[in-house]
């Protein structure tokens, strides 16, 4: 019997395909619609303490093989987000609340709020590459990462996922610091930049941005493989997945589930149904009965 459901530390997903944070997930209705259209789960936009407008446009630019973005963690703030969660939860599927803060107290406050709103897990954004004082600035400090994860594991009941940055010298040091997390999410965007050669200046107002999409897939697969091999931890892979072959690569490198972001812009929401069907056909042809059997097959 072919079964593509997965279980991530008690979080049951009908398929291993999750919407990544930051793409069509600031609004309850769009999150619900993506779940209704076949996503196994949705990660919300990263939410902080206060509402933020983010950077002035241009905040996204298309580059070969993907997108470069510096949105600036724009979000409505945690107090205004409960209503969106409530709407998305009507889909009856898992919602994962992404949060960002600059210290342990902020993360704890945000995680408790998300838990009270009814999300089934929290994902810590320790990896946004383009906002001072948040994201990868927090996520590249192993002591701080360890403290945040420890505190949350002690004080909240739902699973805690730590989303790490590829923009560090030694990912294993950070992965080990986040050891108490229920799963590690790898990777956030890769720091990059694009120049307008006629204006003779960087295109993004923030100058630097985060690269996503097809071009970063080999980077993501490598991080997943390395972290899985060295730590044995549960890993959720993300970066450049746009069809079932990309997903299977990530799974065989050690991912227990995968997230999809940028491909939503090119493939539409229908990607979730199609990729589940294609995965089933692949598993049938290759004689796999469960996703679990494929996890880490390339290790
Ligand atoms: C426009 C945009 C906004 C994003 N916002 C967030 C965010 O708020 N929090 C976060 O953890 N990751 C954010 N990401 C990163 C994605 O969740 C994902 O890690 C990355 O894009 C790689 O996956 P992909 O190639 O499938 O897009 C964002 C990515 C894009 C393109």
Automatic annotation (TrEMBL):
Signal peptide: none annotated. FMN binds at residues 21, 45-46, 125, 163, 187, 213, 239-240, 261-262. InterPro entries: Aldolase_TIM, DHOD_1B, Dihydroorotate_DH_1, Dihydroorotate_DH_1_2, Dihydroorotate_DH_cat, Dihydroorotate_DH_I. Binds 1 FMN per subunit. It is found in: Cytoplasm. It catalyses: (S)-dihydroorotate + A = orotate + AH2; (S)-dihydroorotate + NAD(+) = orotate + NADH + H(+). Its EC number is 1.3.-.-. Its cofactor is FMN. One of its GO terms (cellular component) is cytoplasm. One of its GO terms (molecular function) is uracil binding. Keywords: Cytoplasm, Flavoprotein, FMN, Oxidoreductase, Pyrimidine biosynthesis. The active site is at 128 (nucleophile). Transmembrane segments: none annotated. Pathway: Pyrimidine metabolism; UMP biosynthesis via de novo pathway; orotate from (S)-dihydroorotate (NAD(+) route): step 1/1. Residues 5-283 form the Dihydroorotate dehydrogenase catalytic domain. Substrate binds at residues 45, 69-73, 125, 188-189. It holds the Pfam family DHO_dh. GO terms for biological process: 'de novo' UMP biosynthetic process; thymine catabolic process; uracil catabolic process. Heterotetramer of 2 PyrK and 2 PyrD type B subunits. Catalyzes the conversion of dihydroorotate to orotate with NAD(+) as electron acceptor. Belongs to the dihydroorotate dehydrogenase family. Type 1 subfamily. This is Dihydroorotate dehydrogenase. It comes from Oxyplasma meridianum.
